[in-house]
Design brief:
OB fold (Dihydrolipoamide Acetyltransferase, E2P), five-stranded antiparallel β-sheet, single chain, about 35% strand, alpha+beta, Rossmann fold
Length: about 350
């Protein structure tokens, strides 16, 4: 077995209930996560990502398949016997204990000597930049500070793998962005394998070395953020990761013709038949009439650095263009324009 693999899930399935009431949460999922990797499980609610995380943690036992940690079969190993820690949405801090006592609690439960606990607590509090808050109680901290305490507590025993189950979901937008950078810094500095669960595609793209996109208990695609964004495996992945336009087309004679009758110059994966074209908004340029595909602006949304334009094509389909606000003249609703399309992903219909 590859010694660089931290977690190896082999054909893992999880079914709740029996007979007609049985629900499949995971269906034959196989996945290898490298040591020292920041890996994100991404998908909508109910897709199975948290179930897979709980199977790795030991809180759930797979109905089928096996899970290995650094080559050791841990499928039926109790949670407390696994070198794995979990950070949940709820920080679950003890309100009657100080920050330092909260961080050192797990180490004391492991029977570590008092001087070792003190040194470990000081080390991880420095790591999360909370040294000056050691003697405060959780209720005296902000939400972001409490999250850092929860992270410090999970990092203190130096686990082989740290599991994070949507830990940023309770934070406001600005603080969530700050914590994204903080989590990536912590993972880089510690070298610990992080497995992060989220439904937020921006979080996944921002922090991850690799992403596994899940839907309905299945793992649809695994790749780097660039691979997932630029080369989605199917329509679900293309739609879930970032904003995407979809146009229907037909392949004939090595070309793709869309509903307006216009022909697009794209790299083809299929030789003939109906296809779906996935087009990112930043790949749509607005140009003067007569120099591209005819369109009419039906909606504008100013986003600060970008402006989003919704355009209607002659066949009734809509497409969104994302244009930098400071690099183009402003268009208004009702303007007749044309569009040019850059990179296109061709998906089988």
């Amino acid at each position: 077995m590859n010694t660089n693999v931290a977690v190896d899930a082999q054909n893992v399935g999880k079914i709740y209930g029996i007979g007609n009431s049985a629900v499949t949460a995971l269906g034959d999922v196989s996945l290898s996560i490298q040591k020292g990797e920041f890996f994100t499980l991404l998908g909508p609610s109910g897709c199975g990502k948290t179930t897979l995380l709980r199977c790795i943690a030991g809180f759930e036992t797979p109905t089928s398949g096996a899970i290995h940690l650094s080559g050791r079969d841990i499928t039926h190993t109790p949670p407390n016997a696994r070198p794995v820690n979990t950070v949940f949405q709820s920080y679950a801090l003890f309100p009657h204990l100080t920050v330092a006592q909260n961080v050192g609690f797990g180490l004391k439960m492991l029977g570590k000597p008092a001087d070792e606990v003190t040194k470990s607590v000081a080390r991880v509090l420095a790591l999360v930049k909370l040294e000056e808050f050691a003697d405060r109680f959780p209720q005296q901290l902000s939400g972001g500070q409490q999250q850092r305490v929860a992270l410090a507590r999970a990092l203190a025993p130096e686990p082989e793998v740290l599991l994070l189950d949507e830990p940023l979901s309770a934070l406001d937008l600005k603080l969530r962005k700050e914590m994204q950078s903080e989590l990536k810094r912590l993972q880089t500095e510690t070298g610990i394998t992080f497995i992060f669960v989220t439904h937020d595609q921006e979080e996944a793209l921002t922090m991850s070395d690799r992403i596994g996109v899940m839907s309905r208990g299945a793992l649809l695609q695994v790749g780097t953020p660039h691979e997932i964004y630029e080369n989605p495996a199917d329509r679900f992945v293309a739609d879930f990761i970032g904003e995407t336009n979809f146009l229907e087309g037909t392949v004939a004679d090595g070309k793709v013709r869309i509903g307006t009758g216009d022909v697009l110059d794209v790299a083809l994966k299929v030789q003939t038949g109906a296809v779906t074209l996935a087009i990112r908004p930043e790949q749509v340029s607005i140009v003067p009439t007569g120099s591209g595909i005819a369109a009419k602006i039906t909606e504008t949304t100013y986003m600060g650095t970008d402006t989003h334009y919704t355009l209607a094509l002659d066949d009734g389909s809509d497409i969104v263009a994302r244009v930098q606000s400071n690099t183009t003249q402003a268009h208004k609703v009702g303007d007749a324009v044309a569009i040019r399309i850059g990179t296109v992903q061709v998906l089988q219909s």
